[in-house]
Write a structure and sequence with these properties.
With 197 residues, the chain is mostly beta strands. Helix content is 0%, strand content 52%. The protein has a 4-stranded antiparallel β-sheet, with no helix packed on it. The chain has a 4-stranded antiparallel β-sheet with strand order 5-6-7-8, with no helix packed on it. Strands 9-10-13-14 form a 4-stranded antiparallel β-sheet, with no helix packed on it. A hairpin with a 6-residue loop joins strand 7 and strand 8.
Length: 197
Amino acid sequence: MSWFPDSSHLTATWVAGPKELPSIWVISTMGGAPRKLADAGWNLSVSPDGTLITFTTQTQTGRELRIMQSDGQNQRTLSHASETDFGPAPWSPDSRAIVYVRATYHPGTIGSDAQIEMRHLQAAQTEVLFSDSRLGPGLAWSKDGRLFYSLQERAPNQGDYNIWSVGIDEHSERLSGTPVRITSEPGGIGAIVNPEE
């Protein structure tokens, strides 16, 4: 689920049956029937200006990170992976770039190639911000230029994840400052809601 900036519309997924992939819908909090945007997708993220939506989908050859207009038109693939997965792709405050976790998931752990990538949409270029085998899928990009991410604890607490933050500059494509631990709690983290939402 992801809200539009007008706070009166949101995107959500719905599964029609046990063998069906989740479809993408837009819902108005003011009433009316939901409207279908795409046949298959999850990990939805609406841009801060409300014009674009990123999502993950499944194809016959693997997972894809895609983008489409907010009305569901002009879908295109941003990245394809035959053996890896993509986490949610939060947007930069100016709606010009996204970040996401690309990782190979193995039972009980995170793949050794887990990394956070940044993609500038106009330049169509991708940069690796950093790699860590303990990265989880949770990710958020705050308006004040901080990246929030989830990190698996080391043994013997490898079943737990916690939230960290670090400064990010979308123009220089670099992280700034020292990562700061935000939480110290047991349990998993599937997603991180933007702190300002």
